[in-house]
Structures are given as C-alpha cells and as structure tokens.
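Hey forum,

I'm writing up a methods section and want to include a predicted complex as supplementary material. The small molecule is zinc ion. I've pasted the protein sequence and the SMILES. Can someone with a working setup run it? I'll credit the forum in the acknowledgements.
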Amino acid sequence: MRRLPCLALLACVAPALAADPVTLHCERLFDARAGRMLGAHTITVEDGRIRSVQPGRIAPADGGQAIDLPGRTCLPGWTDLHVHLGSQSGPQSYSEGFRLDPVDYAFRAVGYAGKTLRAGFTSVRDLGGEVAPHLRDAINQGLVEGPRIFAAGKSIATTGGHADPTNGWNSMLSHLVGPPGPTEGVINSVDDARQAVRQRYKDGSDVIKITATGGVLSYAKSGDAPQFTIDEIRAVVETAKDYGYTVAAHAHGEEGMRRAVVAGVTSIEHGTHMSDEVIRLMKQHGTWYVPTIYAGRFVADKAKEPGYFPEIVRPKAAAIGARIQETAGRAWKAGVKIAFGTDQGVGPHGDNAREFIYMVEAGIPAAYALQAATIHAASVLGVDDQGVLEAGKRADIIALPGDPVADINAVLGVDFVMKDGRVYAQP
Ligand SMILES: [Zn+2]
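Reply by user p_vandermeer:
Happy to help. Structure tokens for the complex are below, copy them as they are.
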C-alpha cells in the first residue's frame, strides 16, 4: 500500500487507503452501456484509469495489490446531476443568508462534498452556488476530499425570479446594494443574457444553469410562472455554445418549460407540470429530464411542519413537491430520456442514493435508474471518459453488497469508493 501525500489536515487524519495500480475482484459487475448485471469480473486500474475489465477472477500479475470485494456489485461511480454543495436547507436557511459569510458556506461545503463522495457519487453537477467552482479546484488539487465537480457557479435568473439573490429583501437593504445585474446572474434582456453567460465563463463555470420558471424555495409567490422570454433563453443557449457549455433549465411550470425546450436547453430540471405537449417537444429536441424526486418529496414533507419554511414558500412546497415523482414515471413511460439528479442541498447531502429508490417506486426499472446516474449522466455532461467500466475510462468505481437490479435498496450500502484510481472507502 502506497501512503498518500499529506496535502492537508483532512487528508492526514484520514487513514491512507490503497492507490493504484490495483486489481479489484467483483462478485458482480453492472454493465452500464447495456443496462444489465453481469457475473464475477476482475478490474485492473493503473494511473487513474481502468486498464482492463475481464470476466472471472484473475490473479494480479507480478504480485500486485488486489482488493477483494466478496458479495459485492461493482458499478461505475455515480453522478448526481443536480446538487448544491454550498448549502443545505433548514428552518434557519433564510436568516442564515443574512448572517453567514461566504467562508462559512465554504467550510460546510467541504463536509457535504466528503459525504457525497463516500455515498458513491464520484461526480456531481453543481447547479447553482458560488462555492462550487472553488471547491472543485480544491478537490482537484487534492486539498479536500469530494466528487469531481462540474460547476454552474451562480444560476442565471431574471428580476424577482428564482435565483434573484435579493428576493425578500426589505427596501433599505435593496437600496444599499442596488439591483443585481448580469454579473450577479440577473438578466432582463437578450444583451444581459449574453453578458451573464460570458461572466460565468470569466468566473470559471463548467455549465450554465437558468431558472426558467419560479421555484419552490425562493421568497416569491409563484413556483410555476415563466420567468424568461424565449429570446432571452435562446441568447443564453447560443452564447453558451460559444464556450462549449451545456445549459440546464430549472422549470416547474409548463410554459417556461416549453420555451426552454424550444430554445434548445440540454436538460429540464424538476419538470413538475410537464404536459403531453412538453413531453412531445422534449423527445423531438432530445432534451434530457432530471426529475429530482428527492427534493420534491423532501419539501412536500417539510411543508407539513409549521415554521420550517416561510409562509410564502409553504404552499408551493406542498403543491409542487408532491407531483414530481408521478411526473417522472409518466415521462419515462412516454420515452423521455432520464438522467439522475436529486437537488441535494434541498435534502441532506450524502443521502443522494435514495433517489434510485424513488425512481423505481415511480415505475422506472432499476437498471435504467442505474444507467441514469452513469452512462446517461456522462452524456448530459458531454464527457465520454466516465460512466462505464471499460478499458481507458477514468477509474471511478464503487461497490456495494448485494445486487441493486434485483433489490434497489442495495444502493444505500456503498462501502467501496474509488475516484481516479484512488480509494476513499474500502470494506
Ligand atoms: Zn436546484
């Protein structure tokens, strides 16, 4: 076993786990490309990449290191396409927005990132939050432990829209700060839209997020109303293309969703009031759907608790939250392409895998749900070096006792996590 370099306090406290080259003996292996479970396999890993995947149990050559994973299924490391590592909701969230400093959120994010990785999520797409691009860099530099992050940075909204950072502020505060503009991710024209995307490029974002309709947790009345003109969304999408960005669109209401799909966004997030017409358009445009059932169930549940949400948020949480799971099942049956996302940061970080169970409850087959978090997620991210266990791909490998295709509850038991060939958890 090679000792890991002691790069930061966190890394020094953690026991040094195996690093590659290494041979893994898996009792089962999930073929994400075909969406089926295979028997025993041997995976060899070197320099952060998968060198070979072979059926059966093959002893490592030249007496190299082997990790036995008896009774376990090996899968490609999962990707959660919708998280917010910079925060986690609670009854204090709204007042904390005024009291906490960015550095407080940054320290919290370090803890959330570690929990997410150890739950089997070797990649995440962080769809909104200024902490994420910095956390991404710290993780890539080996300073803290966490998943590979594809970061949106600040979400793009319109005035008063979901992700206008000044919603709910009193007039004195609003006067002091002034109206937010494209730099802060708030736009009101086609020109603003272009500027906001270019600002995200300058800030080091990897992907663009827009809030095409109202949202549940913002301090505003409507969760459904469209909040961009179709020309504004087109300007976002076209400018995003110049920088090689994909665009994720938060949307609950039908009209905002329709505009986003027609304007060419890559994915619809939440998709609560998805009509048959929107389903038809999504299939026509090849738009991905990231349901985030977890967030829907979580907010619907918390809406029952007096005082958890402000009163302006509570009815939205109850009405919107309860519908997402049914929409996910309907969209899957209709043939919409589905990829995995939780919106964690609404619910607790580290519990992301419960989304698989909710997807299966909605009528989505377990094998498809596992593809949604692996090969589909890679496709949404626009990367081809992860999401499958094949020679040449990144060595992002997780393992869990049991067979999650036979019993989806097995997803909660991840006890082996490797990212880029480095082991972060081992039974
Ligand atoms: Zn979100």
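Some notes you might quote in the supplement: Residues 82, 84, 127-128, 343 surround zinc ion (CB under 6 Å). The chain has two domains: 15-77+387-425, 78-352.
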